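One thing: could you explain this record?
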Amino acid sequence: MRRHLWPVLLLASTPACTLGDRALDGCPPEEEPCSDSTPGGIDFAGARAVGDSIFDGNHATAVGGTQAITLFHGDTGRPVTEPYVATAVPSFTIERTGGPVVTLRAKQRGASHLTIRDPEGALMDRKVFKAAEILRIDLAVARYESTQLPIAFLPGKIELGIALRGAGGDRLVDQSMTLELAGATQKGWDTLVVPDATAGTHAIAVTAGGLPPVDVDVTVVAAAEQLVEHVPAEPLVVGQPGSVCFDAVAQDHHVAGLTWTFDSDNGPGGTFGTANCAFLVPERAGTLTLTAGANGLQRTLSLVVQPAPPQARVAPEARLGSVAGERAEALAQ
């Protein structure tokens, strides 16, 4: 069992910011005039990667690869249709512009402002974009699942993603990436649809970042063999949300894309954002029996639930403060 508070954190979060410097902080000092055409600055919307949530911001561009940035007015959200000139040196070249879309090509590792100016040279807005080297290539799924195992799929129609990763596992974008597998169709820049996958191992030829093709293996298994909970971390607590995640295991892989069900006898149990994790809010101390189901398999756990921590009592006078006037307080001393 690996507990997460992701659902609570997500509810308390705001989407990652894609607004430019001017949209966030207003017009910079007077020595750099600002354009009247974008009084609210610009929202720089980069490419989405398979599995992204609304809380994911812009990703770095893979060196040698491209990323299309769509420009929106920061105050109204409408596309930028006013004339502009784009620059992004030294890490990028401008591959092309068309309407509100600026396509960057990353030529070296680093970070550079994508600066948008009007034809007279006045600042419309700017935002830093990063370029990074591809260090590894992984499989990805459209619906997020929590696992430390390599991913496998069941036979039949499969829609899978390819994740380019840089330092620290950060996602990278190369919208010029190509994906090749016999009988499959590339959908979008990082997604492949296999109409009738059969059990076995299949190699996808991935070409990205101007590098030679790399084979990424896709494992297809006949069925999941067992459900295994993640390693316990800490007990659940009454009234506090937590989650318990499971792997559907076959051939030492996690089988992705399954329909999961969760049943709790102590408070609500269901999913929230992560398909293979039960989202729980226990109602009473003692135990919670959780039954997980997927692919015709079931796994039942008995989990410890601790009482809610006592609330610290605050004296009424401490909550309200003194109601005595200054003279009354002075006479009381």
User: Anything to note?
Assistant: The first strand starts at residue 42 and ends at 45.
